[in-house]
UniProtKB/TrEMBL annotation:
It comes from the Eukaryota. Gene3D superfamilies: Vaccinia Virus protein VP39. Pfam families: Methyltransf_24 (PF13578). The keyword Membrane applies. The chain crosses the membrane at residues 21-37. This is Methyltransferase. Keywords: Membrane, Transmembrane, Transmembrane helix.
Length: 276
């Protein structure tokens, strides 16, 4: 039986050069089916296209079925319970952004003994006083003292800790370049809406599926006076602050958002990255 004109025209027409990979795959499928159907006297193009479509659909639904649901996160009273959860999950890698004196890091490292690598990201330097009106924005001498104090406090875990004394955005870029992913990120750096949003968006891709993104100070500016967290570094005003940035991200990605329920004041928030 002679080859059908279709293969001839593909080999010789102008359109050959414009064929995409998808077309090539289709032709291969058609080629296989053609051989199968040859005894029956040639192929039916409609049938082949339909067959290919059903194969594609089957692959897609298989992928969806293989994404297991996550176990719901447990309710937690305070941020100090997060480390217990990380330990229970056998997680091994974490990043804390906004370290200050290293008290929270010390608690985490002491509790989360399965941790193998804990990155500490902080500029430990004063930032613009006009746009960053935060009690944490102390002078440079004080920041230097905090940095030394942190290193002393965390010295028992020296082999596990890594210091990134730089802007959080730069530390995220550096980590991304090394193609490293972590199980846990805790955001406690800039408290303005833009800064918090930027940290969340930059660090989310660095978290493994099933890992945890959490942070401090789930608050609107009205709740933190006399501090002022409403001013972004570009001078724009966003009184929704950390609370706004976190809620917006959770809504955008359809992620359940969890808050600590019995802190003396500064509530933490946390959410889990879906498995796929
Ligand atoms: C963590 O590791 C322990 C010991 O290997 C194991 O029994 C447990 O099931 C693990 N937990 C999770 C959540 O994988």
């Amino acid at each position: 039986m002679p080859r059908k004109p279709l293969s001839f025209s593909i080999k010789n027409s102008e359109s050959t050069r414009r064929l995409s990979l998808g077309h090539v795959a289709l032709i291969v499928v058609m080629g296989v089916c053609y051989v199968v159907n040859q005894g029956g006297g040639g192929y039916d193009l409609t049938y082949l296209v339909a067959r290919r479509t059903s194969i594609t659909t089957a692959v897609t639904s298989d992928a969806a079925a293989s994404c297991p649901p996550l176990k719901p996160l447990p309710p937690i009273k305070g941020r100090n319970e997060i480390a217990l959860f990380l330990q229970e999950m056998n997680f091994t890698h974490g990043i804390e952004i906004g370290v200050q004196r290293g008290n929270f890091a010390a608690h985490n490292l002491g509790t989360w003994t399965a941790c193998q690598n804990y990155k500490l990201v902080d500029l430990w330097a004063q930032q613009n006083l006009e746009t960053y009106k935060d009690v944490a924005n102390v002078n440079n001498q004080q920041h230097e003292n905090f940095y030394q104090e942190t290193q002393n406090r965390l010295s028992p875990w020296k082999h596990k800790t890594e210091y990134y004394r730089m802007m959080s955005v730069d530390a995220a870029k550096y980590t991304a370049k090394q193609e490293m992913q972590v199980d846990f990120v805790y955001v406690d750096a800039r408290h303005d809406y833009c800064g918090c949003k930027e940290d969340i968006e930059n660090y989310w891709p660095l978290i493994k599926p099933g890992g945890i993104l959490a942070g401090h100070d789930f608050m609107h500016n009205d709740e933190v006076r006399p501090q002022d967290w409403s001013i972004c570094s570009d001078g724009s005003i966003h009184p929704e602050a950390v609370k706004g940035a976190v809620m917006e991200f959770a809504n955008k990605h359809g992620l359940p958002l969890h808050l600590t329920y019995r802190e003396p004041k500064w509530n933490s928030w946390w959410m889990q990255k879906p498995l796929c």
